[in-house]
Fold each of these.
Amino acid sequence: MSKNIIALLPDHVANQIAAGEVVQRPASVVKELLENSVDAGANNIKLIIKDAGKSLIQLIDNGKGMSPFDARMCFERHATSKISKADDLWSLTTKGFRGEALASIAAVSQVELKSKQENEIVGQHIVIEGSKFISQSECQTPTGTTFIVKNLFFNITARRNFLKNDQVEQKHIVDEFERIALPHCDIHFTLISNGNEILNLAPGSLIQRIKSLYGSYMQKDLVPVSENTSFLKIGGYVSLPDTAVKTRKEQFLFINNRFIKNPFLNHAIYEAYKELIGFQSHPKFFLFLEMDPKHIDINIHPTKTEIKFTDEKSVYMLLLSVIKRALGKANVAPSLDFENSITSDFVTTDKVYAQPKVSYNPDYNPFKNAASTGYSNDEGGLQKANKQNWESLFSGFKDTVGNDVQSETNEQHAIEILKNETLEYNVFQLNFKYIVTSFDKNLVIIDQQRAHERSLYEHYLKTKSENRISSQQLLFPEQVELSANDFNLIKDLKEEFNVLGFDIEEFGKNSIVINGAPADLQDISVVQTLEGILETFKLNTIDAKIEKHDNLCRAIAKNTCIKYGKILDDTEMKLIVNQIVKCDNPLYTANGKPVMMEVELNEIEKFFKK
């Protein structure tokens, strides 16, 4: 007799599994609650968090509130007021519509809800823990909704253990907060973390909202984008090419005020900047697309950040052309003026132009002695022979294990000789990029930027709290406005910055003052250097897990070392050589890039003997 093994999961288990798709971290809860408040018509929304949302997430809005029945019904799975039939998915104007969010949140936390409609005398107070309904009662509360989420993942210990530290989780919360606040400039948003006000965004225009979030300096970096067609409306701002940064920050793309991620449209944006920004540089953009909901499908991902278009190619081409036109108006992209006729003073009718004549020797034959030289008269033979000869120059540096070991041994030998302080050697600069010197009849070629970066990195890495780098006070302290995430990062790294010679103090909300910089750093822009250090630090955090002090030392070294193109005199070049040979690991930068190479004399002689 067969045994049945398939059974329905209990509701609380099914809810926890479903919650895994919607609630991945505290920021997921923040996103869903903020969207509900916007859909409820609120014009004042306050978000309060503790311990990066792990202990408390509280959202207070002045929206239209809920009736006693709706207040209880909203926690049921797939209970929604946004749609009633499948066709409604093609006419959505709200952010939420599936009815999964509140049920998922209640399944993995302790939830309290207080809500009241304007025409009601009292509101409703509901308590739910881990999908288990505890109570519903009347209460005094203002019009709108207050949602309290405590102890997220209290009943799923494994999920809670996978959460990152408070700094990382708060960064994700701020990111979600910004994605909701940017398109809804008419709403007053407030964010409070552990009793400290992080953001207070008063209603205003889009550029005012951008300045409130990322600093007033952003306005001079942006150019407006605007286009209105029957199919698609595009608005917002894009950054000037010379303000491109090394990380993908301040990049926002919205469709009908919903934040989306779309690699295809991102490609259109980058294509508009083609040949205007450097390799691995990224523009900033705040772009808002509006189109009929019937042309898009947002119901393809649980978080609703990925969408599909019925005519994606048209959206791509419109977006590309609009951004290129905006950059052209700002005089940063090449453009043609078709309104003015093209004239040329050499186009005449009364002058005869003779064909230019070139003198040459018709009997000259460069392959006359091909037999004696070993070259072939045909083009392929010439290229092959040249290729073979050029490869012989680098035969000692081929990418094989044995040759790598031998090369590194030779370079270590060169370093030991160069460490001799009494050694007299000549140096010269090659292509404003390399320092070339010689020892024992061999050549050593040193990358000037990487060598200086390595020596600075080890210099900063060896500093400790009891052995700080001296700080040079600035004649005029520099005030810097930062985004909320960068401000929190500065606060977290403040002690490390102080150890490394930076004198930084908080100056109001999301603003700092730089009073001093490391004494050994001269002729640098302190503000630009600090911004570059933050960008490099965040980039290193993305690429690999690096200890905080180590990461900051790498970032400072990379942003304060001499750069390619700098002309060095003999004294400077010899100083760099002396510094790099005394490093613990002079052959590679902190991220593993080679610093120097050696060319042996016998390899050079082998080449010229052929």
Amino acid sequence: MSAITGVIARPTSYVGIWGWMTTVDHKRIAVLYGVTAFIFFLVGGIEAGVIRMQLASADNELITAGRFNQMFTMHATTMVFMVIMPLSVSFFNFVVPLAIGARDVAFPRLNALSFWIFLFGALLMHMAFVVDQVPDAGWFSYANLTEKPFSVNRGLDFWAIGLLVMGAASVAGGLNFVVTIINLRAPGMSMMRMPVFVWMTLITSILLVLAFPVITVGLIELVMDRNFGTHFFIPTGGGDPVLWQHLFWVFGHPEVYILILPPMGIVSEVLPTFSRKPLFGYPFVVFSGIVIGIMGWAVWSHHMFTVGLGPVANSVFTITTMLIAVPTGIKIFNWIGTLWKGSIEFTTSMMFALGFVALFIVGGLSGVSHAVSPSDFQQQDTYYIVAHIHYVLFGGSIFGIFAGTYYWYPKITGKMLDETLGKLSFWLLFIGMNLTFFPLHFLGLNGMPRRIYTYSAEFGWENMNQIASVGYLVLAVGIIVFVVNMWQTRRSRFVSHDPWDAPGLEWSIASPPPPYNFAVVPTVEGLDQYWIMKERAEAAGTLNTEPEALVDPDTIHMPSPSYWPIFTAVGVTLVGGGLLSHFALSFVGGAIAMMGVIGWGNEPATAPSDDH
């Protein structure tokens, strides 16, 4: 295999900052999502550090109770909505069109719009720090904590309107990927020949489209309660605070699977590659993902066992929560079956995938203990819950995302991350993860409540909190090693288009991929198509599995860059910003958004000079 020795030439319209602002190339949008989400990952990590340093010792006064509330609210909100979700969408953008043999997503300009709305919505929420009116009611923002008497500044308005803006981005992106996967698959790629990651993308996208309207209704009602005198969640006006919990968790539990299904898909690609054998039980992995997506709508009230729903409701949701562990267990056994008697290569990506499986099992087992409503009465609002969610979302989602980063980085950049530094980063993150979050199980069982900013030494919680805070420092060093690894690739040589001997179509083209992806759209003959092509070449007595020759991008019909998506996104964001400042700004934003949509609608899909 010969190395790719240079970066693919791009049309002049892609050059410079303006090129990034106007791009509709799904691969560039993937990079924008990934870089933005990683920056927010560092922001959320700093917020977590403040929390851990405050709790490192008893009777600590590093920060005030109010600032502590702000830190854990923004930490959780940032990690869920601005880190794990967009990092997954980054992989959706880069991998899915390549994996299904498409030249781009179905709606390239809508894809760009979804990124810019996400970015501006996230920045709008973080403007709360600039004006020092930071949300402080938790990422769940339970009523009545969110009502004016208990949250008098604009912090919860920043939170609600920021989420409304980002929700529009999520729905747009979800619709785009559903249409892309259904309509743009290469000839021969039936649904049951799609890679598991593409299946998980499809299920996640459907969940996004269906779940975000629910939280949108709740957020609109919350904004109206706070600003327009309605009483949806105010008991004195006939409202019901429990209604907010239902709306939030009807969205919030599908959201958990929105966060975990994409990493499950990543792991289902990584394990077969480095076990040198096809995924064991492919149909079972696919259908278990579908069942998880369906059953995710039937378990939301296990977050509400202590609000007084009654024994019938508690019993029903106890049963459904236990049942949803079954398809998850099926996936785990199929991953183990893939490893069984495989020729395992312990690359950094493989180690993160194995770490995902191990840590997710711990999080799953603690989740089953929450499913039993009587024991949940003891665990509710303790650090046992904090331990569970971090084993699922850090040990699960983040480790899966790191596995995907090391796996697809050579395809994204044409360069390889250093394996020695990668394995050092893995062990630091694995050890730091367990040091930080495993002691929280014991703290919860010993009665330490969530969301307290300090505690007395007499409770005996200090030692475990100190261990957890040391673990945070180990995690921080692991992230620093990862950043150093990324930085040093600037001087690395370009590697083969297929450094892992991988099975997916994305590895059959140059690295980094050309703007058009495939000069000739491939025909798919079965699952793991590139392995099929390589086996045929080997049977014919040749090892020639080089990527197709590069062609002039201007000879292939591709959509032109456009400034209308970012223009429209500015208008949408100003509509939300006006609700936080002056309604006149919302009117201006609406006018800008309308102009953007009209301009977008009248713009040719491809500039005449590029139309071949």
Amino acid sequence: MSAYDDKPWLALYEPGTPHSITPEFDNVVDMFAATAAARPDADAIRYFDGRITARELAELSDAFAAGLLDRGFRRGDRVAIYAQNVPQFVIAQLATWKAGGIAVSVNPMNRGRELELILRDSGATVLVCLENLYRDVAADVVPRTDVHTVVTTSELEHQTRCDPRLFAGVERIEFADTVDLATLIDEFRGTRPPTVSLAPDAVALLTYTSGTTGPPKGAMNTHRNVVFNAQTFRDWIHIDHDDVLLGAAPLFHITGLIAHVALSLLTGSPLVLMYRFDPEVTIETIRDERVTFAGGSITVFIALMNAPNAEKSALASLERVYSGGAPIPPSTVRAFQDVFGHYIHNIYGLTETTSPSHAVPPGADAPVDPTSGALSVGVPVFDTVVRVVGDDGRELPPGEVGELVTSGPEVVPGYWNKPDETAKALPGGALHTGDVGYMDTDGWFYLVDRKKDQINAGGYKVWPREVEDVLYEHDAVREAAVVGVPDAYRGETVKAFVSLRPGRSADPDELIGFCKERMAAYKYPRQVEIRDELPKTVTGKLLRRELRE
């Protein structure tokens, strides 16, 4: 059954809210140009004590685009951006589009093999890179790729504070074989690149999947995808230029690209960047900058709760909090509300849906399924149809578990240079997400897990999420990840990896007993391993694959 058949969830929206939106711009360049023209002197980016206005952002990106074109950059060429959350990331993206190119986002945690894979797969000819990442990683990789221009920059630029908690030991580095970004911009300052016409279906971004289910693939997020979901965030969450956006998610990730960068470029809301996430610094930044909207993975909000400066008053300016990218235990939502007084609204999407495909409406609390204990990921956003299908491809009725298949303006047309992968994941343009879930009779959607993560314990099916949610109810548990491990008797059995809250204690037997009291006999973990930290991607997703290995 499709959520659009009866639309019972429409009552969840505020009266008068439109349920369909029309893209207002053909591309991201035109979108930002309108914003800069309307409020040229407003802050576009705040980076510690540094400020970049919309007018300055337009000038900086114009100059960089002109410099790229002067070095032989052509329409459709790719620029790989290998950096943390610094203003230069946004400048490089805008410049790439103004030069008619495609921006390739690279995880700054990637090492040589991973960086080389993305550079070679994308065919990037330009690499924009933090100086330390060039020295430590990229310098050895670039000669084996198509990159002919490397532009280096420093996280120390555009600010003077240089907080030692983040920048201890960081120094400027000069390279004979790279172009310094600030020098290049100075050379072309005041030059505007020729106007380029970018069609809505032109690829704006190549965003590489995290690789948790196999080798990374470059999702082709078009300008239409980006503009549409920037408007989705704006209209769903009610963001305007008076808001202040916290850039907590990594900018290379689809959440950061849309909920931070694109949303700011559309609305004119200042984007507050912090180089990299640190919970103490983040709390201070929210307080000092009077941040009104924060979005990020649930691990961000868990870290804030456990920070030594976690005080309710510090987050008093927050008006809307949304979390996606990883499952949210209901107990964590309650705990965050107890500490800071703010409800965390669930939001769900994938790289291939250009961020959100589902969200909890503002002002509504997501229901918790009484059987599984799962917190709803919300309802489909504007113009989006989501079907739940069985293994035979047929739609399932409410309450039955199957794969989520998503259609809408936010869905990418495919993967870069991978027609077979595109045909498999996007037959007929509908995205087969690989996520398993169901819809209730009121139209709320619930995720169960990734199809590949299901545990088969003696013929009984166990979803890791359900076990993890029970573990999160224990007051000593900070993070939990559950996997299936080989078992001589059951074939596979349930093992949990757990990290504990600061100052709390629990042993494996206690946690096993806690779950045993609350779950069917075949579900509770037979093994628990306590670790200081659990492995995660930079976006906060727990790496079950690494734990299994």
Amino acid sequence: MSDKKENPVIGRTSATDRDANTADKFNYWITSNVIVNPFDIVESEHFKDSKTYGLVTNLEHRTDAASHLANFVSNNFGSVSEDPNTPRVGATLAKVNVMMNDGGGKKPDGTYKDGIYMPVENEKNVRFAEESGIHAALGIDTMKEENRIPAGLIKMSNEVEAVVYLDKSYVIGPESAHVNISGISGLATKTSYAMFLLQSILQKIDPTEVAVIIMNVKHGDLLKVDEPPVKLDEGQKALWLKLGLEPRPFQNVHYYLPRGKNGEANSFVRPRQSRLYAYELNDCAEKLDLLFSSIPDPTETIDSLVGEIASGLVNKTAKSPWAKVQDWLSLLDGEPLADAGKSKPIGDVKASSVGKFRRHLRRMVKTRSTGIFTDRRGRNEDHLADAIRKIEGGHTYVVDIAKLQDHEQAFVFGDIIRTVYEMFAESDETLNLPKKVLIFVDELNKYAPAGVKDSPLIEQILDISERGRSLGVILISAQQFLSAVHPRVTGNSATKILGRSTSSEVMQPDYRFLDQDLKLSVTRLSKGELLVQHAVFRQPVKIMFPMPAYKQD
């Protein structure tokens, strides 16, 4: 009797000749004065004293009226000033996707018995699931304690709360990896969640084994992540603690800011302990292809020319035709690409194609450059790849690209991921690398857009998304629209986080992992609410999360 008082019956299962319960779904009617919402997790009685857990996906209210017209007539042909002549019998019905059956209890080793997946019969009592039931339904109970990464908090309609955990093996490997976040749910929501998740990972594993690289792509949002917060209220602090985490800023943070045309930092904010970065020609000898990632090259002419230039610069000798090429200006206007201002053929590449290449390159490194491409780096300016090669576990590296041109942003991001990927792929024992590197980037659709078949940058991102987990290179990415990103990148993300989106967006094929009813629910998510689909979870779940615990303007 005490169990029922603690967890009361909220309805009973219902099956009809036209709407049957199945092994995958069941219905139940809701008793009066009980509020149920989509994404609530419920439990139903089943065979052999077992419980079947399910996710509420939709709700319907049905009456005995044959039609809406009958309701109109029963209200004295549309009168709203009187009670209806014919009171209707009505009930609210919840639609539920089956998540798991506990088989009637646990075995001696603590695991559940084999589940019973017969359809739930009619007239079985239904209750809200408790925290332990929610964990069992999602599969969290199968996770090792040391593998649990807090991802947020479920709060159901009856005020029951449960911490949601991700399995480390499916976030940073080796089973699977990568996290992708999408949605239009409000200012900095996606970034805030990514930063919360990074902090959660760092607090729940040995931080010395992990290094973090953060791309700051908007204003100065992420250039104060080492400073304590000034706006974190007590409720937010309590939520951090409820998740088993400390509300604290990032530690051991290094900031890298782009050089501007005046030699000063080209940044919205100049944080403490920051360094400038810039690129000389020799820094880019083997990376020029990244600069041309957004330039169509159907005949591979640019690719061929970039190969010639890279080979010439890397292997040049005193008698080489590339001997006098020392900087961007001499490459653009001197031998062997040009003579007296006119383009020259190189290998199999015609002079006209060389001229086109020079025009593109001049635009990118001279006329439309913000200043990161320089003929000579100053003493206080780093080659970014050299700095990344010194990466250490337990440290966070924030690279600012917010005020750069689009082609410069793509180049810097490409430079970072290529450098990291090569470091881990080569397994150079002298580098003393951390076991994992987590790379966070927003606006992923700019670097790996859907519909673009091939580019040097996309190839690099695909390498990480498909093989990074085995190397320890993990991508945490975000964008407004999931459908705007290359499907092989999002398809290889074992964890997908969805914020509020538009109805037209959720109808795209990229969202086929969601039940049809849940797709519409995504359009109603509030700011701070996210939907989590994780490799271990049997159904997606709605969570809330605390705001990041660092200084925000």
